[in-house]
Design brief:
Chain lengths: 492, 445
């Protein structure tokens, strides 16, 4: 926002018939009429109404649009559960090398040994980090990894002639993708309560396991939970599930809290996904792309999706001939450009370095927790892991200042807001994840802003409720967007 | 530790504020017996110069389209990418932002997604585009799930054998666990068998899927597939190549209900298969069942035009187990690449890209079919810029021979259909020159 740029017109509104941003060489293969090459009936009647601009106009348009965004590069972005850490630029350099960027996905294996070696090494590194036997890099994103993992769980039970295991237990603090995934995997969801300490209520878990018995396929658990708390009784949870023949799925969204500190495979997890765009620095890009690799224990290895990358006699190959595989989850072999960045990140740190990443992430979160605990109500007592969850219930009660208002006021003070209204079990929640890459001075400035807002909420609440006022737009009419939907531009 | 800024003094001051004696104390909730006894074994830490060298050496082990003449396609094409795209998408405000949940500080992302949605609606001929999905195959699977939601009692999905084999296998992965049945209709001669399609599309059918141009590069009779789908009360789904749509009729204008596809041809690097994006367009009446993110226009409290994520009650974070899709992201940065690409090319430029590709592909097909032993596999099927070439020996051997001469001659079809072991799928883009086509012919001789 440094240039204070305001750009209101859409690219279509800048279009002038006949302008061009790119020209192409004339045909050196003749000028045969297209009607003689393509069936007449299949040809387009009217050209698509795409914009027509010079290159400068296009470059200026999108550069100015970028000025209306916050990004990690410009702004502290303490968005809970999203792990908005710095994205090293050497990763972009690596991914843009022709040997990575200009490789066709169906080239013969012998021509892509570099990429396959990198992918195989990343799989091995993720297996090591998670304490599991193997990993697949195929899934495109976290939710896609969830689906891949749950389909493997389903295939495992079917293979053991237990197709009646159709229910997945999910704590009430879970990400919305967990229950949605279970549904599209053709299974049922049963919710498990959180106890007073914010962790899974073991009594409720025992009861659900007792009632549902042989119908439980797995439990999906996020550890640390979305409340930023480590599931202290995770070993017990795993034991209870395994005793009943069910598996333990871990949502690895919060893996930034565990690198080198605890390995899910060591505490009984059978299958988990990782978000390479969170823990492993793939830039979020305004909402994507990401990658959601899945790591599994030995018993799920036969069900991994294809293709799998195997090492045979010093060379790497993609293989699809695995009879028990769940099949393909997308085209080709995942998002390899993301693998480059994630593996570069792991190699930059080494084993000791990864543990230091987690130590600094947890130190930063606890520092924020300590500095803000008097001004805002903590959802649950600390210490926390990688994120601190507060509630604005005090500010709501006092002067009707909601978590949403606090978030908007932070924008005026130069910070991206934390995650709000999630997890659902915390009213007026403010979920703050600073990550390890932020220096103490940034945290201090953020704390100062939060304290300022707490003061304003008490003394001049309207100022908070009117925020933001420094952005290109003020708060939006979201109801109108649904009631009078305009989902594409049309000439007026 | 170049990415962790803490000094010893920082740590001391922070621990004092927390009231902890050491960082280790903060990990007290993690039971001792779970703590690993050794550091993670992921190789030694590398400095940036060491890492750069390692990346360069590893990338150099691959043969890329920078040193091979690429005639491989199958949904991913070696197309020209204007330099302005990389320059613009590397801006940190685009690269390092997140999903625009807070619209006031995300108007840049929201506006380009709105522009992207408009461009995709224009290309496909349908009124509503979402803000993008993962890629082509999963976009087809989401189309199947959406169609099921519109006809919940049905279980049958009819798919042409000329649809990309990876798309078909992905559909099966998504269909099996929810009890849907994927029925494949043959494509003898490289085109979907229209009579077989009509027969397969029974009243039990919830969706019919064809690809345009299809996996073999051939131009399908979309209106006939649409008619078969509609006669069955099913959704007509078309997976389309976005560049081909500069020349071919928009499937939406031909009656298709859902148009999806792989976005890579619109300014995205090959990158061994990803990341790219998938597109997904529907009729207005399906908006409330649309998977993925969607941006709408509204105004702010001062009446100024602004953009916002909308119809969020469709999505998993609100509907949870009642959601019909678990998608929680778009591929924004790649949708941005497409928006910039299409803005730079405009309607005339995109048409030239497609027309050059078509003319060059036909020129190459003519030359290749004259090489002794080679022939077009589907001589009667009209094609756009990709064609199936019957070879006198297994196609993987033809590819191996081409590699020795610096040519990636295409995709062998044997792995997808054993009957096509001697068939090579050859794609030609606007990048290939007449001299390149000659080299292809030389490499095959």
């Amino acid at each position: 926002m440094s240039l204070g740029l305001v750009e209101d017109r859409l690219v279509f509104e800048k279009s002038r018939a006949g302008r061009r941003g790119v020209t192409l060489p004339a045909s050196d293969a003749g000028e045969a009429p297209l009607e003689s090459l393509l069936p007449g009936g299949a040809l387009r009647n009217a050209p698509p109404a795409l914009p027509e601009l010079s290159e400068l106009e296009v470059v200026r348009h999108y550069t100015r649009l970028s000025g209306k965004n916050f990004g990690i590069d410009t702004t502290f972005y303490p968005l809970g559960s999203c792990t908005m850490k710095y994205n090293p630029r050497v990763h972009e350099y690596g991914a843009s090398l022709p040997g990575f960027a200009r490789v066709h996905p169906l080239q013969p294996d012998e021509t892509v040994q570099g990429f396959l070696a990198l992918a195989h090494s990343l799989e091995r590194a993720l297996a090591e980090i998670t304490g599991l036997a193997a990993a697949t890099l195929n899934p495109s994103a976290g939710a896609h990894g969830e689906l891949t993992g749950v389909l493997m769980v389903r295939a495992y039970h079917h293979d053991r002639s237990e197709p009646g295991r159709d229910t997945v237990l999910i704590p009430d603090s879970a990400h919305g993708t967990n229950p949605a995934t279970v549904t599209i995997a053709g299974m049922q969801v049963q919710s498990v309560k959180s106890g007073p300490d914010g962790r899974v209520d073991l009594g409720d878990l025992r009861e659900k396991l007792g009632t549902l018995g042989g119908r439980v396929a797995a439990m999906m658990i996020t550890n640390p939970s979305t409340l930023g708390l480590f599931e202290i009784r995770i070993g017990e949870i795993a034991r209870l599930l395994h005793e009943k023949g069910a598996l333990l799925y871990m949502d690895g969204a919060n893996m930034n809290a565990l690198l080198g500190i605890a390995r899910p495979g060591d505490f009984g997890v059978d299958v988990m996904h990782l978000n390479l765009h969170k823990t492993f620095t793939q830039p979020h890009g305004g909402g994507g792309p990401g990658a959601g690799p899945v790591a599994v224990g030995e018993k799920l290895v036969p069900f991994l999706p294809v293709p799998r990358i195997v090492q045979e006699g010093g060379a790497y190959r993609r293989r699809e001939d695995f009879p028990k595989t769940i099949g393909r989850v997308r085209s080709f072999q995942g998002n390899p450009g993301v693998f480059v960045r994630a593996y570069a990140y792991i190699r930059s740190h080494g084993g000791e370095g990864l543990r230091k990443v987690t130590e600094a992430a947890v130190l930063n979160a606890n520092y924020i927790l300590a500095r803000l605990r008097d001004a805002y109500d903590l959802a649950y007592p600390g210490p926390c892991m990688h994120e601190a969850v507060f509630s604005a219930r005090r500010q709501v009660k006092q002067n009707g200042v909601r978590a949403l208002d606090i978030a908007k006021r932070l924008i005026d003070l130069g910070f991206h807001p934390p995650t709000i209204y999630f997890p659902l079990i915390v009213p007026e929640s403010l979920m703050i994840e600073p990550t390890e890459t932020e220096p103490k001075e940034t945290l201090d400035a953020f704390v100062a802003a939060m304290l300022t807002i707490a003061g304003e909420a008490a003394e001049e609440p309207q100022k908070v409720k009117d925020a933001p006022v420094t952005m290109p737009v003020t708060r939006l009419d979201e109801v109108r967007a649904v009631k009078q939907p305009r989902l594409r531009w049309r000439p007026r | 530790m170049r990415y962790v800024p803490h000094t010893e003094q920082d740590r001391t001051e922070m621990l004092r504020a927390i009231g902890a004696g050491s960082v280790e104390e903060l990990f007290a909730p993690v039971p001792k017996e779970l703590r690993p006894k050794r550091p993670l074994d992921v190789g030694p830490a590398l400095t940036e110069p060491e890492l750069q060298s390692w990346l360069e050496e590893t990338a150099a082990r691959d043969r890329s389209a920078a040193d091979l003449l690429c005639f491989a396609g199958g949904g991913f094409y070696d197309r020209f990418i204007p330099a302005a795209i990389d320059a613009l998408v590397s801006r940190g405000e685009f690269l390092t932002s997140y999903t625009p949940y807070q619209p006031e500080c995300s108007q840049g992302t929201l506006q380009y997604l709105y522009e992207y949605q408009t461009m995709m609606a224009e290309l496909t001929g349908l009124p509503v585009s979402n803000a993008s999905l993962y890629e082509g195959a999963t976009a087809c699977a989401e189309a199947m799930l959406l169609s099921w939601g519109l006809k919940e009692t049905s279980r049958r999905v009819v798919v042409s054998a000329a649809v990309h084999p990876h798309y078909r296998r992905t559909l099966e992965t998504y269909a099996r666990p929810v009890g849907l049945e994927v029925v494949t209709v043959p494509a003898p001669g490289g085109l979907t068998d229209a009579a077989a399609l009509r027969k397969a599309a029974t009243p039990e059918t919830l969706a019919v899927l064809v690809q345009q141009p299809n996996f073999f590069g051939a131009v399908e009779d979309v209106p006939s597939a649409v008619a078969a789908a509609h006669a069955a009360g099913a959704q007509a789904v078309v997976a389309a190549d976005p560049v081909a749509l500069a020349l071919l009729e928009a499937p939406g204008a031909q009656g298709a209900d859902i148009v999806v596809g792989e976005g890579q041809p619109l300014g995205c690097p090959l990158a061994f298969g990803g990341p790219t994006f998938g597109f997904f367009c529907v009729r207005e009446e399906h908006v409330r069942k649309l998977p993925g993110r969607l941006v709408g226009e509204t105004h702010d409290t001062r009446g100024r035009r602004a953009f916002v994520l909308t119809f969020q009650t469709r999505e998993q974070h609100i509907r949870r187990e009642k959601a019909t899709s678990n998608i929680c992201t778009s591929q924004s940065l790649y949708a941005l690449r497409a928006a910039i690409y299409l803005s730079l090319l405009g309607p005339a430029g995109l048409r030239e890209v497609a027309a050059l590709s078509v003319r060059k592909a036909h020129a190459l097909a003519e030359q290749a079919a004259k090489i002794p032993g080679f022939a077009l596999e589907f001589p009667k099927a009209p094609f756009a810029f990709e064609f199936a070439l019957r070879c006198p020996r297994p196609a993987d051997e033809v590819v191996a021979a081409g590699l020795k001469r610096g040519v990636l001659a295409g995709i062998p079809l044997g792995p997808h259909d054993p009957a096509l072991r001697n068939v090579l799928l050859v794609a030609v883009t606007e990048r290939r020159t007449a001299a390149d086509l000659d080299r292809f012919v030389e490499a095959l001789r």
